[in-house]
Amino acid sequence: MNKHIKLSPLLGGFAAIAVLTLLLVIYSLTRPVTIVGTKNISIDVAYEDGTKEHYETTTEAQFLLEATESIPDLKIEGNTSDEFGLMITAINGTSADYQKDHAYWAILLDGEPCSYGISQQPIKDKETYTFQYTSAKEEAAKP
């Protein structure tokens, strides 16, 4: 015998509100936290051949991309999407093309990989960022 259970529309509404509330809590716990005010940060660029460039800046920016834009000698190029922000393809004329040579520009914060891309990476006073030319082929060959 087939018995159909009829759920109340009110129950569905409560379930939808509960899911939305859970999603908002998760977002608030995982979103990038920005700090307002003046920050002094260092930025290093480490190229494929081992050479490095060092920059320092004082900025009111809240995100790394905005801070890099205040450094005239640092030229960062890339493709922008609404979902991910700027995807770096070249720094100071040096390209890293994953499709061509399996290379990319890694962003490190005090030596550790960043949790966000350049557009969403929040900055804090006295932090050091490194843009590291990285070859995926070399990474895969490491023990």
Automatic annotation (TrEMBL):
Q: Which Gene3D superfamilies match?
A: 2.170.130.30
Claim: Transmembrane helix is one of the keywords in the record: yes
Arranged from A to Z, the UniProt key words for this protein are: Membrane, Transmembrane, Transmembrane helix
Q: What region holds the Transcobalamin-like C-terminal domain?
A: 74-134
Annotated Pfam families = DUF4430
Spell out where the chain crosses the membrane: 7-29
Source organism superkingdom:
Bacteria
Identification of the protein by name: Transcobalamin-like C-terminal domain-containing protein
**Which species is this record about?**
Lacrimispora algidixylanolytica
Taxonomic lineage: Bacteria, Bacillati, Bacillota, Clostridia, Lachnospirales
